[in-house]
Amino acid sequence: MNNATILIVDDEPVILALMSKGLAPSYKVRAANSGARALTVAGTDPRPDLILLDVLMPGMDGYAVLSWLKENAATRDIPVIFVTAMEAAEDEEKGLELGAVDYITKPINPAILLARVKTHLILKQARDFLHDKNAYLEAEVERRMGENRIVQNVSIRALAHLAEIRDPETGEHILRTQAYVQTLATRLQGHPRFSDTITDRYIQLLTKSAPLHDIGKVGIPDHILLKPSKLTGDEWAIMKTHAELGARAIERAERDVEQPVEFLALAKEIAHWHHERWDGSGYPDGLAGDAIPISARLMTIADVFDALISQRVYKLPISFDKARQIITDEHSHQFDPDVTDAFLTDFNKFVEIASKHQSGD
Prior knowledge:
alpha/beta, 5 strands
C-alpha cells in the first residue's frame, strides 16, 4: 500500500501543499493545479492508484475531469474522491452519480483524509485482485475448452475414419461432405424456412457432426460393403441398415455422458435420416418433406453429389455437370426444393471443394 501513487488535483497551492504533506509519508504523491493538467498526469506513468479531485476549479471543473477519466479505458477504473468546500447534498449526489467513490469536504482533516485514502486503496486492491483472478479463470476455462474441442474434433474424425477404412475408395469424402453441408447451411441461413433453425451455432455443430453420417457402415459386412457389382435385394436390405446402426451407436454414446452433447444430437439425425427422400420414398423410415430433419436434408444432397463424382468399387465417377443435372432432375423429388436451389446457386463452390479435396478416386 505504501507504494501506491496518489494524484491530488486543486487550483489552490495551499491545499495542494497541505494534502501532499499529509500523504507523502505514506504514499507517492503527484500533483496537478488544473483539470487539464490532471488528465495529462493521470495518463502518464506512474499511473495514479487514487485521485483526490477538487470540484470547483477554473476552466475544467472536477465534474468534467471525472467524466473524461471515465470515458478513457486507461483511467476509468481509477477511484476518484472529490474534495470540495460544497456541502449541498445535491452536489455530492451528482459527483457520486458520475462515478466518484467518496466525498471529502474542506477544510481538510488530515486524519480523515488518510483514513479515506487507505480505505479506498484497500477496496481498489481487492477489485484489482478479483479482476485479475477472473481474467485468469476465464483464460483457463477457455484453454481447457480449447483442449476439449481439439479432443472432440480428433475423436470425431477418428470415428469417421473407421467407416472410411472399411470403404477406402471414399478417400476425402469426409472432408468434402463436411464442407458441402457448411456451404449449404450458410447459404440457407437467412432463408425464411430455415432462419429459425440455421444459426451460427447450428452451422458450427452441423459441420462438426457431419463426418459421422456414415459411421453405421462399420457394421456392414465386407462382402456387401465392398462388393464390386450390383447388390442383391437381400444385400441391399442389409446395406440400408447402416443408417439405423449409426444412429443407435451415437445414441449409446449419448447415454454415456451425464448431460446432452449438442453436436451428437445432430450427428444422430444425420446418420439416421440422410437417406430419406423429400417425396417419402427413402429409408429407413420413409419420412417426407419437413418431417425430415434439416440436418439430414442438407447431408442428403452433399452425400449424393459426392457419391456421383467419386469412384466406387461398383462405378466410375461422373462429371460435375452430369452430377448437377441429376440433382436438378431430383428437385422436389429426392431433395428439398429450397436446398436444391441453394446447391445450384453455390454449385461452383461445390466444384471448388471437390477439386481441393481430391483423393485420386
